[in-house]
Each structure stands twice: as structure tokens, then as C-alpha cells.
Amino acid sequence: MDELFEFGQRMLREQPFSVLLGTQLALFKPGEVVLTLAIRHALKQQHGFVHGGVLSYLADNALTYAGGSVLGDSVTSEYKINYVRPALGHKLVARASVLSSGKRQAVCQCEIVAIGEDGERLVAVAQGTVRKAETEA
Amino acid sequence: MDELFEFGQRMLREQPFSVLLGTQLALFKPGEVVLTLAIRHALKQQHGFVHGGVLSYLADNALTYAGGSVLGDSVTSEYKINYVRPALGHKLVARASVLSSGKRQAVCQCEIVAIGEDGERLVAVAQGTVRKAETEA
Amino acid sequence: MDELFEFGQRMLREQPFSVLLGTQLALFKPGEVVLTLAIRHALKQQHGFVHGGVLSYLADNALTYAGGSVLGDSVTSEYKINYVRPALGHKLVARASVLSSGKRQAVCQCEIVAIGEDGERLVAVAQGTVRKAETEA
Amino acid sequence: MDELFEFGQRMLREQPFSVLLGTQLALFKPGEVVLTLAIRHALKQQHGFVHGGVLSYLADNALTYAGGSVLGDSVTSEYKINYVRPALGHKLVARASVLSSGKRQAVCQCEIVAIGEDGERLVAVAQGTVRKAETEA
After folding, report:
1. From CA B55, how far away is CA A56, in angstroms rounded?
2. Three-state DSSP state, C43
3. For a surface tag, which of B53, B130, C8, C66 has the fewest beta carbons within 10 Å of its beta carbon?
4. ipTM above 0.90 for this complex
5. Read out DSSP for A7-42?
6. Which pTM does this prediction carry?
7. Is the pLDDT reported for residue A63 higher than 60?
């Protein structure tokens, strides 16, 4: 297991909210990350789909990881998400990557797919800015 | 307790994810909603602040409620959030309102403040589109 | 005419694109700006409404001015816009304000109304981040 | 020249604002569009770069075209743009594509590059929602 991946896993364990939800790190290399999350009842809304807030959390976290892979310890400054389809199935997979980066900030994109019996389906796409954690606004 | 408020509380109880987080409905009237969430350890990230994903969830839900107050049962199609300050304190309050609405969609805004010993401080602002639940994209 | 307003007018005259479109500065004080633009045929799209790109330009510029009023010479890093109604009439008015600011960045909001025979109507709302011009990303 | 491309060119000629700026259609097929724009003095801001409003206009228009390629006559409902680098050179190229589409709406992404002496450089990325023109909100 390489250093970056180990750092990524430690951060995830140190985020109580990620522990509460059960997020897993599947891939973490410079400019790229894959996070996964098992879908369970507690993550749903009133229509039986995954709550949009869970997709947002996952997009936010994946964007932070993608930016952090090139900037070091980072936070998401802002992002935008489009939900494109209700999320059903047994697992969410968020794939984020860096589109452009400077010394302090990176612009990243993320797509989230839901994996069910009939394969994977795109459920949300996001785009946002990640900033080095020590940088004040 | 009026009908709209009762409908709003029922929806919240029927969202397992909102129950997991502990969201409360404080105000719900046509065009306006206030949701609150007690800050606890499980909602934080690695630096001791509320996880951005929690703020996103709360913004998403408040936007949906605001839109839903004029459209009926609704979902958030898309939104954008800017985190403006780390969230500390004991309670989050999300206030959302409708800026413009048609038959099927409403554009809404939301601000989230964190309440601590020194009063309330703005921590995030969001803007997005809410769509009637039965409307297919 | 105060110094800030004069600075704002000079910047507008030094932006060839703003000169091409005909943008006017109506108010400029710390944390707040109002820009106006006369609607004419050349600014429209195929259905006879003001082109969304004109509304976007005006929102972008108003956000930059709002941020610049507290940060000094600035650029818009990112923003999001919702078009809420087709823009008709004889004048656009964009009002932007600062929601939160630090040393290098400000988060700002903007609303654009179109003024016609029956008064003003909201046509677009925007939210985004403005950054001091000398700050590298 | 195929029908879709011809339709796209006609729309561009019927948009007075696109004629004013000088936008060209380079590619138009289902789910994909490429628009180009020659950089000239009139499109710049006070620091000599292309005005952000021009990039926004181009992103907005490319998103509409991408969505329109699968939905028919369309308008952009909302989008978000991140400027990642000052735009210099002699030509802008905006490439947009459809990420997901239903009967009434499509979610699209767009990247804009500036072409100069040293090749092409990414200057902005955008993501948004396009809606069939006859659909009321």
C-alpha cells in the first residue's frame, strides 16, 4: 500500500461523518480518487432512493480528495452538483479528478454512479474548487 | 400546528437519512423553511469542524423544502454551495426561500449559520433548482 | 463623485467588452454594486429575448465589482447562474453584494432584473467567488 | 452539410448576440458541439485577457447547443463555470457534450480552451442544465 493511499485512508478514518456513513477509499493517486459507499436504508429519503445529501456528501469528499492528492491537506471551497437520476442499487462509486491546479487551488470534477443488478448508472455529476487547508480565504 | 408544517415533519420522519442526522423542522410556510441540526461529534471531519457533506445535506434538504412549500412533493435537481467559514458551535440553522417559481420548478436560495457561544455566524450559502417529484426530467 | 465610484467607472471604460455592450455603473460602494445595461437588438437570441450570455456577462461583472469593492482589483473565480424568466424590456439592472469576505476572496450574490413597461421582473440570480487579481490560484 | 449542422448554423445566424461576437459552429452532432470564437480586442477586459463574460457566453451557448442536439430547440436553465486560467491567444474553442438526458432536460458539460502560439490551454469548465424551449418552468 503506497503512502498517498495510506494517508487517504487515515483521513477517512479521522472523519467521524465518513465513518458514520461507511465510506471506503478504493483508489487514490495524484489527480484521481475513487470513493465507494454501500447503500443501506439509513442513507435513503422518503421515496426509497439514496438521499441527495448522501450524494452531495460523497461528491464533496471525492472533490476534496482529488484536490488534496495534488495540494496536500485540503478543503472544498465550493461546488455544484446535478442529480441526473434517482440512486438505487447496492453501492455508490464516486470518481473525481483534477482538471486544473495551481499552488493553492485545484478545480475538480466528480461523477457518481450507482451499481445495481443491471450494472452501473450515472446518478450525479459535480464540479468545484478545492483549496489547501492552511490557506485562508 | 398547521397542515403544511405537519406535512413537513412527516416527510422528515420518513427520510431515514434525516433521522440518522437528527434534522428538525423549525418553520415551514409557503416559500420559506428553517431546518436545524444539533452539531455532534459524528457530524465532523478531521479538523474538528462540521463536515462539508453535512452542510451540503442540510442545504439540499432546505432547498427541497422551500421548493416543496410551493410545488408540493419535490426533489432538488441541482444546486451550488459556497462554504464561507468553518462550522463550529452547537447548532446549524438552514434558512431557505423561493426566489422564483413556475408550475414545475422553483429556484431557491439557502443560507446556513452555525450557532455558538458568540452568536450566529454564516457558514455556507447555496442556490439551486427544485422540481416537482412527479415531473420526469 | 467619490474615489471608489470613479475607480469603478475607469475599470468599466478599460474593459473593451463592457464598452462594446454598453454597461453603466449606477452605484458602487463597499460591498455593493449596481450595473445597468440598455437592451438592444444586438444583445438578443433567436427568440427575441436577451441572450443568456449577456445576463451571464452582467452577473460575472457585477460579482467582480462587488468583490472588488472590498478586495481591490479582482477577478471572478467561479459562479453559478439560474435564469428564472426570459429577459424582455428596455434595461437590465444587476445588483450584487458581498455575503462574506476574507483577505483574498469574497463570496458574492447577484440578482438581475429586466425593466419594462410593467415594472421590473427578476430574470436571473447568481452566486460566486471573487479573488484579488494579484493572487495566483 | 447535414441537417443538424445546418439547423445549428441557422440558429447562430439568428442570434444577434452571437453575430456581434463572431461565434462559429465547428461541429454539431447528437450529444456534441464545438463552437469557436476569434479573440479580438473588443472581447477583452482591463488586463488584456478575454473577458470572463465572453467565456461565460460561449459556455452558455455551447451547453444550449449540446442539449439542443438531443432535445430540439432549447434554452439553458442554469449552469456553473470555473475559470481556471486567463484566456490569451487568437481563438477560443468550446466543446460541450451531453452527460445525461430525459424528455425535457439534459445535463451537459463544457470545456473551453484558448489556442495560442504554444498550443491549446484549458481556460474554463462549465456544467449545467438545458431545457426544451417550449417547456415552461
Report:
1. 9
2. helix
3. C8
4. yes
5. HHHHHHHT-HHHHHHT-EEEEEETTEEEEEEE--GG
6. 0.96
7. yes
Percent of chain D with pLDDT over 70: 97
Nearest-5° Cα angle at A10, A7 to A16 = 140
| Residue C92 pLDDT greater than 70, yes or no | yes
Q: Does residue C104 sit within a domain?
A: yes
CA distances from D69 to B66, C53, D55, D134 (A): 33, 19, 21, 15
Question: What's the pLDDT at C87?
Answer: 97
Q: What's C69's domain CATH number?
A: 3.10.129.10
Q: Is D74 helix (H, G, I), strand (E, B) or coil?
A: strand
- Looking at residue C98, its amino acid is V
Tell me the nearest-neighbour CA distance from C61 into chain D, angstroms: 7
Q: How many CA atoms lie within 13 A of A76 on its CB side?
A: 34
Give the integer Cα–Cα distance in Å for A55 and D26.
36
Which among D84, D85, D107 has the least Cβ separation from residue A82? D107
In a domain, B137, yes or no: no
Cell numbers that stand for B2 in this block: 398547521
C37 lies in a domain? yes
In a domain? residue D103? yes
Give the domain range for residue B74: 3-132
Inspect the interface and report whether the beta carbons of C80 and B109 lie closer than 8 Å: no
